[in-house]
Amino acid sequence: MKLRRFHVQNFKSLKDFELDVDGFLVLIGPNNAGKSNLFYALDLFLSSTVRGIDDVSFSDFDRKRPIVIQATLDELSQDELAKLRPWTDRGVLTVRKEYTSDESGKIAAEYCATMPLPKEPWLRDDFEDYKNSDIVRNLPIGEFIPGSGRITKEIYAKAIEDFKARYPERITYQVEMRRNPAGFKQVLDGYMPEFHFMPAVRDVTEETKTQASALLGKLMNLVIARVATQNPSFQQLQKALREVERIIEGNGGVSKLAEVAELERSLEQALAIWDVKVDINVKAPDVQRVFELGTKVNVFDGLATDISDKGHGLQRSLIFALLRVWAGQSRQVGETTAPVRQRSNIFAFEEPELFLHPQVARATYEALRELGRTDQVMIATHSPHFVNMEDYLNVAMIRKTSQERGSEAVRTPTDLFGADSDSRKHFNLIKFCNPDRNEMFFARKVVLVEGQTEKSVLPLLARRLELFDHAVTIVNCEGKTSIILCMRVLNAFKIPYLAAYDKDDQPSLNEAIERAVEKDIGESFCVDPCFEVVAGVPQPAASKRSKPFAAVEYFNNPEVALSPALEELVRRAYR
Which single residue of 31, 78, 203, 377 could bond 372 by disulfide (Cβ 3.0 to 4.6 Å)? Predict the structure, then answer.
């Protein structure tokens, strides 16, 4: 089962928030934009309790409006589809939960399901006149109703099923949302994806404990559970534990182990004044529980100690390493064995870059993206090491443009390059010349330039004019073609930009840049005839060393004046 769409209303900053979800999704946005609230909403939705809901949970502290969370899920396994089929439409499960608060502050949750239902009211299990034999026996369903006797709910339900089986072509369905359908909550809670969340603010040491509540413990249990269901030795161990239980408990308590039975009698005598019976009930634990209690992860880095005694960077790396192993095993299981009935997983990481060296962070990003092939992974990050421009289809920008509208998500719904394989290849190759291009996603504004000279000089001149802003990112695109490709991404994610290009002798590309500008998002600046001429760097100085170095050295002299065109470019870039 995979989560595909998530819609939240009136939960914190998520006033009317919609997001399409993939196997791997990177959430980007400024602080306080709502990324954490999305994870908290997922955690609430995928749990079967209302724990944690308080005044702050309701948008604008308004308890009169319910919190509504709706999810669309697909790729149900055969087992999931068999159990949830009455509440699915063409293999898709839509679940809605509404959380309300009464006057005393008590929170209640109602489950709603999108169901295909017959248009004819007499083919529904809530048909009000099912007891009226005069009405029922004159309906098309009448042939399946006994000729005499009282019509019970069970009799009518069986008649509906018999009619559907014999005359499927005579039934017209319509999709409706039904509130609290019978049996829905009980079945659903055992099949919804499991949510594993690592928040940024929690002490990472708490996540590296092997208890079931900690993320490391959850991951260890996932691996052990998979082994326990497939390895014959583990199955024999489970049988042995059940045999120990049988020896102690006997046959329904009749032949209970003598020592245990004697202890029960002794306790009853000591409690005689209470006139009670004592039953010491022993249940064999599952194999997973045995390993959970006895598992400890030691790491040797010159000194063998528990992982909780190591640095936070190593602790987080261990969790990500275990996820990588889990992903590899998941692929092997899917390729070599029959599927085992287990709930799907959604892993969510808030600021996974914390405590990680940049190189380790980039490797971890690759590992999490790989995990997204088997399980679903969502990360919220402020680091360019945890986003890749090539993976723009897996990026969601989270913004809060106003307090009234709340948080919003921006994704590009389609491939920006389509069938243009050459453009796609060129775009992907830009990373080798511009490894810092991923910073575009985090910028207040992006300035696209043709070469390294502009990238080096513009920030220097902005400081001279007291305009410099770290939130403005200068990207060296190494030519006009790459400027156009980057503009496609910036337009899709509504990131403000300035495309600065030389007029020179490429009129067709110049026109293409102008056509690509979306006026409500970005703007262009044509440098006439080229940046080097406008900058006015003396040619001898430029010829002795690289142009960028010569230009920086030239403008480091405070007595060097800026030409009007150059100053205008700097002001346009940083305004």
Answer: 377
